[in-house]
Design a protein that fits this description.
With about 220 residues, the chain is of the alpha+beta class. Helix content is about 50%, strand content about 15%. The longest helix has 30 residues, at about 105-135. The radius of gyration is 18 Å and the shape is globular.
Amino acid sequence: MSQSIFGYEFTNGALLEEALTTPSCRQSDPQVRDNQRLEFLGDAVLGLLAADLLYAARPNDAEGQLTVRRTHMVSAPALCAAAARHDLAARLKRNKGAEPLPANSKTLADAVEAVIGAAFLDGGMRAAKAVFDALSLADLARDAEWTENPKGELQMRAQAMTPPRHPSYRLLRTEGKAHEPVFTVEVTVEGIGSATASARSHKEAESRAAARLLTMI
């Protein structure tokens, strides 16, 4: 297996292999090391890298605006899009006979974070930043021009339509462990469309979904 991914060459190939091993592999091999621990680490490293970039690039943004931009950059849809650009799905280790992953699968987003975590362990923050830069997530920050309250902004824009509309939020599913649930929410505005997003709280999932739908307006 190649030890290069997202433009970064791993010194420790075992770290990359672990990052690409999805939890589904445990169905056939309960002892295998999947990428969940690396995903946990990578999530934190990704958040720091995004915050560092935005702090330097957006000196006039208030805290709320920076938070919205960071949320947009590190959202599951953004990570899935990055995974698709690099054909990450083809490199994942999954249980034999597993169905093809949908483009918006959380498994893809988790794997991106796991690779970032693995790169951090392999080569420190410089290596993690090389992966981060290759993902081109910074481009998304320029698209997040709404306020620090995406749900409020979406509500205001929907009500300004003729006739006035109202965003409708729907919980699609709840996944993960009982103490670490992941909520996926869909928001719909007639005449605009729908968008989905996932987060570790229902409220945050709604906010991220609203933010994503705003990019379609």
